[in-house]
From TrEMBL:
Organism: Streptomyces mobaraensis
Binding site for Mn(2+): C73, H355, E397, D427
Protein name: Phospho-2-dehydro-3-deoxyheptonate aldolase
Pathway: Metabolic intermediate biosynthesis; chorismate biosynthesis; chorismate from D-erythrose 4-phosphate and phosphoenolpyruvate: step 1/7
Cofactor: Mn(2+); Co(2+); Cd(2+)
Length: 449
């Protein structure tokens, strides 16, 4: 084997280990053909960009920056349209502007976008009216429609995932570098939200302060070109390992492996087994890695994850995304943070206040209460304040559209409203106004810290 081939084979060491949550592809030959084709496709991101994000996340780990990571629970192929992508991006940028001002720290902006097409599920099948079919595992695997045809895993979908990711990322890059995302414009959108939202007055003071700061910078003669572009990164859960490893390449600059399907990838709560394939795969790539930590995580597990994924203790390499539930965060997080800090590791701590707070409404809709989401973030800040550690960021499921999937918020959604615009293919997302509410409220928390 040549040196490169040997390194490349390193991206496949996961194959001998148990891989949780993988689809039951009916035709392994068809899967092999798809993998071979994916291997010939160009990278979606450049390894140097992954390194840059790792440096940004190192600042988060050191307490000098804040991570805002957000987007859909599950992206969908039929939602790869200009309006939806723009609205999502716009919402994230608006949140980012508010948090930057209030925290007076750089906000690292990372979308759950351009690759978030695969879902781990709690049950392998779904039964409706006596009919049982495979569960929906994301558009990269099967269709959402409840028919045997749609629910049969089809590897051709992995190619559509690549194409959908490529088109999304292309538009995101155009918006963020082409002038659409100019900070002055983002600020004007925020002013508009404060003026027009029912709870807007609450945020008037903060919005006015930001306005004054903008005017101050203008008066000082800060080059307006500085405001024109924004750094934005793409991330998704590295779930379907056949896809992720087909897009894992040797970086010509460094000779190291990078998963070029996205800048950052994370390993989910259901696939973070220490001796499993996902952690093995993640250990071989140089991208910044996130790992979700639920309420059953022990400090020993967290320390072993650090050993496996960040043996060199490199700030920015590893982000722990805690998703405990509002009722558990104050109880479960302190020991984890204490033990990890005592070990000398410098990880970034980020709060996912969504996945520990899901429940089923009487109408059958999977939903979350805005107040629980807020309370988990509050608990996360409290724990870090008490320990003198840095609350490094938030990881949220959101959309820029006016959906009705989570209850509560300043422009309150009631349980009876859920059916009106319940559009998610998997988990309930904060809508545009709930997302902005959250940003203003987290900004206040960050400032009080
Ligand atoms: O984000 C995803 C969900 O939390 C996960 O797929 C589990 O959802 P389920 O319980 O509906 O399967
Ligand atoms: C499945 C998800 O989260 P977790 O792995 O934390 O349950 C998700 O982020 O959509
Ligand atoms: Mn989810």
């Amino acid at each position: 084997m040549t040196v490169n081939a040997e390194i490349h084979a390193g991206g496949n060491t996961w194959r001998s280990l148990p891989a949780a949550q993988q689809p039951d592809w009916p035709d392994s030959e068809a899967l092999r053909d798809v993998i071979a084709e994916l291997e010939s496709y160009p990278p979606l991101v450049f390894a140097g960009e992954c390194d840059q994000l790792r440096q940004r996340l190192a600042a988060v780990a050191r307490g000098e920056a804040f991570l805002l990571q957000g987007g859909d629970c599950a992206e969908a192929f039929d939602a790869v349209g200009a309006d939806q992508i723009r609205n999502k991006l716009k919402t994230l940028l608006q949140m980012g502007a508010v948090l930057t001002y209030a925290g007076s720290v750089p906000v690292v902006k990372v979308g759950r976008i351009a690759g978030q097409y695969s879902k781990p599920r709690s049950k392998p099948t779904e039964t409706r009216d006596g009919v049982t079919l495979p569960t929906y595992r994301g558009d990269s695997v099967n269709g959402f429609a409840f028919t045997p045809e749609a629910r049969t895993p089809d590897p051709q979908r992995l190619k559509r995932m690549y194409q959908a990711s490529a088109s999304t990322l292309n538009l995101v890059r155009a918006f963020t570098t082409g002038g659409y995302a100019d900070l002055r414009q983002v600020h004007a959108w925020n002013q508009d939200f404060v003026r027009s939202s029912p709870s807007g007055q609450r945020y008037e003071q903060l919005a006015r302060e930001i306005d004054r700061a903008m005017n101050f910078m203008n008066a000082c003669g800060v080059d307006p070109e500085e405001f024109k572009t924004v750094e934005f990164y793409a991330s998704h859960e590295a779930l379907i390992l056949d896809y992720e490893s087909a897009l894992t390449r040797v970086d010509s600059r460094t000779g190291r492996l990078y998963d070029v399907s996205g800048h950052m990838v994370w390993i989910g709560e259901r696939t973070r087994q220490l001796d499993g394939a996902h952690i093995e795969f993640a250990s071989k790539i140089r991208n910044p890695i996130g790992v979700k930590l639920g309420p059953t995580t022990t400090p020993e597990e967290a320390l072993t994850l650090i050993e496996r994924l960040d043996p060199e203790r490199e700030p920015g390499r590893l982000t722990f995304i805690t998703r405990m539930g509002a009722d558990k965060i104050r109880d479960k997080l302190p020991t984890l943070v204490e033990k990890v800090t005592a070990s000398g590791a410098q990880v970034a701590w980020v709060s996912d206040p969504m996945h520990g707070n899901t429940f089923e409404a009487a109408s059958g809709h999977k939903t979350r209460r805005f107040d629980d989401v807020l309370d988990e973030v509050k608990g996360f800040f409290e724990v870090h304040k008490a320990l003198g550690t840095h609350p490094g960021g938030i990881h949220v499921e959101l959309t820029g559209d006016d959906v009705t999937e989570c209850v509560g918020g300043g422009d309150e959604i009631f349980v009876d409203d859920l059916h009106q615009r319940y559009e998610t293919a998997c988990d309930p997302r904060l809508n545009r106004s709930q997302s902005l509410d959250l940003a203003f409220l987290v900004a206040e928390m960050y400032r009080d810290q």
